[in-house]
Amino acid sequence: MSENRDIAKKVVEAVGGKDNIASFAHCATRLRIMVHDKDLIDQAGVENIDKVKGAFFNSGQFQIIFGTGTVNRIYEEVEKLGITGTTKEELKSQSKKQGNAFQRAIRTFGDVFVPIIPVLVATGLFMGLRGLLTQEQILSLFGLTAADIPANFLLFTQVLTDTAFAFLPALVAWSSFRVFGGSPILGIVLGLMLVNPALPNAYSVANGSAEALIMLGFIPVVGYQGSVLPAFFMGLLGAKFEKMLRKRVPEALDLILTPFITLLVMITLGLFVVGPVFHSLEEWVLHGTTFILGLPFGIAGLVIGFFNQIIVVTGVHHIFNFLEIQLLEQLGSNPFNALVTSAMAAQGAACLAVGLKTKNVKLKSLALPSSLSAFLGITEPAIFGVNLRYMKPFIMGLIGGAVGGFLASLSGLAATGMAITVIPGTLLYLNEQLPMYILCNLIAMAIAFILTWMFGYKDEAAPEMAVAAAAAVNPPVQGSAQDASGVPGKGAAETSQSSVPSQHAYILDVPSPLSGKIIALEDVPDPAFAQKHMGEGYAVEPSEGKVFAPFDGEIAHVMEKSKHALILAHDSGLQLLIHIGINTVSLKGEGFVTHVQTGDIVKAGQLLVEFDVDAIQKAGLSTVTPVIVPSGTDQVAGLTVKASHNSVTAYKEAVMAVQLKSG
Predict the structure, then answer these.
(1) In which order are the strands placed within the sheet that holds 61-65?
(2) 108-140 tens-digit pLDDT
(3) Which of 22, 27, 269, 436 is catalytic?
């Protein structure tokens, strides 16, 4: 699709071009790019590309948030530009030296667990559905009781809900081998050995119905059903050991000896050393987690609900996957899910408040979809695209998350699964908890929304984004969308005369640089101009494709590649931006001929640019040309657009009167 192709091209250009890209990959929501020179990246330009919901550096990667689905299409278009993509594993390998040791460790931990999460999500949904179908209230609707449920049906549901956790070590060991460069099939077999039925079942040993095997007179050996850390470290050590063997075993014997020795050594270490040591550590982690979750008076929810999204910003939140897996395996439920759900819902509500309150079209079009994404369980677009950009909405979201987590902790909410939250997360509470789950999230959302609306966001901050958007196609312009006296203009349809303090020495009458019909700036088919975020002035619907200098001055800037815009500077300090057509930057200079360069001194009436009106219109673009005084021009105290001039001849008739300061 041409739109995604254009976005891909803009992304490549904004990160410094093809030559600056060392490698790139994508995950569920983000394009992840490794660059040679960070300083070549135009982050403001990236953030204002269509469909981009935020961009930031994390652990050595420049990450651009597009959202689920969209990121895949953008990635494909980038590949079509001749840039070879990499797998996420290859990208991780290239960035393994980035960040501190803790960040690298957590990132690796996440690489292992992320691929198995979908299976655990499905299992959690099965648990929720089984809980729903076996509720007495639901059964009573059909005139049934629990005794009426066929035993074979319960067995079938048990297969659906118990398999993933019963063989969890096999999944973890497989993923660990894959991440650390071993043969994943060896990881699967090694993991299955840990839960072989010949070993005493860990659950049976725990409840006293079976005894552990005592090896060498003092080492207790059991199965490791539901264990994570033993399988993770066996995968890590096994992959390293396998790679070491392959370098030393003759090629003719590699097929036989390497798997044999790897499995023999690793299962021995696993049962007698790695398993007992890390299973004990795992139990301590679980006990610590359950202790925090069991703190009285809702303290756990208050703390976790507040700090969870801060941890998400740091990028080390994948450690929670391990905790949730352990909770589900050992407790049969996941109280952590309810607390983080409140935190996520609150960030979505804060983002929604910004989207509904702002009048900035660019910000609104970013905030509203990002809030929906948060309500579906992905908060990065809302956090990085909106809330952190203005900071206060993020803080209000933290407060809402703390209150929601506090209530969830007090009420003892616990999910039947993991990895889905907010709206999809309702599937994990299809029992008597559902009303309270909804209530906690609504309260978290309401608090975050109200606080953001009242104290967390003022719409005058919004023009930052419009100005940044202008910087993507024009030189940076700073300031608010009003004249220096604080009084906004009205456009061509009516006259706006600012109060003129004593220091205003004179008024400069400025002719139109184009011939054609004068139209109000509010009627320009581009929100950035129509809402005057880029400055005050008017627009011309040209009758011919020529732009002339309306006064003597200097060419402050010309868009050399696209040729569609320039800034002319007057000796007084007044600057005039002439932007030929709307979205004509997409033509890449086709149909435009510039007769001046940046730095040229020009005279009134001198031809500056010629453009092909027909070519622009055939491309489906508007030729309406905004002529504005950029926001923040220091020498300008106010301006008036003369409403009587409905049509003008270039550089002959004064259209705008600009009030200039004396000093």
Answers:
(1) 21-26, 30-35, 61-65, 54-58
(2) 666 776 677 677 667 766 766 776 676 666 777
(3) 27
